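Before a colleague's protein record goes any further, I have to sign it off. Would you go through it and say whether the fold makes sense for this chain? Take the sequence as given and treat only the tokens as open to question. The record follows directly below this note.
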Amino acid sequence: MTTRRSFLKNSTVAAVGLGLTGTLTGTLAACSPNDRINIGLIGCNGMGFSNLRAFLQHPEVECMALCDVDENVLQTRAANVEKMTGRKPEFLYKDWRSVIDNKDINLVIVGTPDHWHCLQMIAACEAGKDVYCEKPMGRTIEENNLMVKAAEKYKRVVQVGQWQRSDPHWLDAVNFIRSGKLGKIRLVRVYSYQGWNSSIPVVADEPVPEGVDYDMWLGPAPERPFNKNRFHFTFRWFWDYAGGLMTDWGVHLLDFALFGMNVTAPKSVMAMGGKYGYPDDACETPDSLQVIYEFDGFNVLWDHAIGINDGGYGRNAVLGFVGENGTLVVDRQGWEVIPEVVNNVTRMEAVPLTKG
């Protein structure tokens, strides 16, 4: 009998031996009206189901299977799919390996907590399935490297949930940045100040809720008693499963710092932070953090805070590309340019808030 632990051990060993292609948008566009894309969703809560909902807007897509370790979530989402499409998914699973083994499924959405992404994405690629993986792609640099190698080795189409890249105004902002009009850019400020979030009080461990396969939920994470603070949405504040606000919001925003400046890896990284706002609550990840990424000729500054709403430019999740002629500010609402004024001389024209 294959236990969860033995499966994980064997899967990890196989993954290490691996020596991102395309986009799923292209895959959908290439389909003829008679083609069907059969989707299996692993992890049906939160963004996993949100991603499925977006896919189901395409008439050639069918939800063939749902998989979740929480029976309550599984049944609720099955009813949601039936309401949206007029039919229930053909298969409801609690073990994600059943999705991988189902040969009629050709696209897998990985919507599980971060600590599961690597194994599930690699297994899907190995089984010949394309993958849409919720961000962040992996929990560590090593996991990310293995996932990229898997996509390349098995020649699969893999897309990560960086959905901001599908919003045209971000590309418009990048084109303006690369036009040179801002002058030399010395700094990219990246803020995520999330006032909606606050302290998560410490609560005692408790029995596993009825209908939950908690052993499977833990997966490759260390074994420990069930605690509701570590389950569903708030898993992201614990190191065993995720990386806090940095890997939650930072994935979206730092992506565009790199994209705008047309760079990849920094020369050096320095980080400082801690639990300054809520030192005694249940969370493990920092509620306050500043990180400096050094590149040739400029730096990127990441700055986040939980429980405070305005990090800069009057917005709560924003990038500022600071040039010698002006600063381009961009977030999900649009982009604008604030001119630099030196000795009463305005160095460039302002660009009002724009969203294409």
